[in-house]
Amino acid sequence: MRKLVALALVLSTTGCGATIAQQEPGETKVTVRNCGQDVTYDRVPSRVVTNDTGITELMFALGLADRMAGYVVSEGHKAGDVAGSPWKEDFARVPRLAEKINKEVVQGAGADLVFAGWNYGFSESTGFTPDVLKEQGIASYLLTESCRNGVGKQRGIMPPLEALYTDLRNLGAIFRVPDRAEELIAGYRKQVADAEKLLQGKPRPKVFLYDSGLDQPFTSGRNGAPQDVISKAGGDNIFGDLDDSWTAVGWEAVVSRAPDVVLINDYADGDATTPAQKQAFLESHAPLREVPAIRDKRFFVLPYAALVEGPRNPAAIESFARFLARG
């Protein structure tokens, strides 16, 4: 009876309809599989610090803004991704803590969990890692898209959408909102399935994801979110053979693979910071002149938060599929 009463109590109800049930003492431990390791959380985190827009939006999509101490995003992402986010109201009411995450920012926020990833905040070169946080008594959760796959620092251990669904289920378990997680996953699966029908039976265009870089382009391999954004929309990622998430390639490889479409990441980095500047550079870069996508001016732009793992991925698939379907 005590258990039934405890389960009936509700601590909070979010704007998205998710609820967090009170747990009996001794029944709060949850173990999830994160980046190949079983990780146990002794209690429901209540002061979470997130890094990057896609990661933060995963919390918001699950209705967990009230469990957050704050988030960290760069000034460029604040002006771009945050301003256009479907969760703009949550971004407004949860504190933005800093432009770059570090141990001092997390400690100052009184964090009991940091949700980030390798190269999404965590890095040995900066000394900010899950092991360092563990020494401070702060738990971590790693974004699955960022999991290292055993080959150097290459990232990605499963197909991108499965990474998204895995994180939603894990977070649903950690924060005791499994029904909300499953509701989101079911909706996303339907949205993706409907988008896939738009180009069914039609030729699949070759797509080059251009993130940034003038001397050397930065793009995405088969383990990054763009892989499924492109493939589920009806195209083929020209670098889908690379066993990595985000990586640098050479312009010669782009030319030889002759993409039909360029998908531009609206991400301010390097000399060409806006989508218009990136397109102008690609059109002016002599080696690319005869590449079909450049010659035919077939460009499509998506925001950064739609191209890293996060709840905007399914909508990105749908919008890109509609673009490709127009021919």
From TrEMBL:
The keyword Signal applies. Pfam families: Peripla_BP_2 (PF01497). Residues 47-327 form the Fe/B12 periplasmic-binding domain. Keywords: Signal. The keyword Signal applies. Residues 1-21 form the signal peptide. Belongs to the bacterial solute-binding protein 8 family. This is Iron complex transport system substrate-binding protein. It comes from Saccharothrix australiensis.
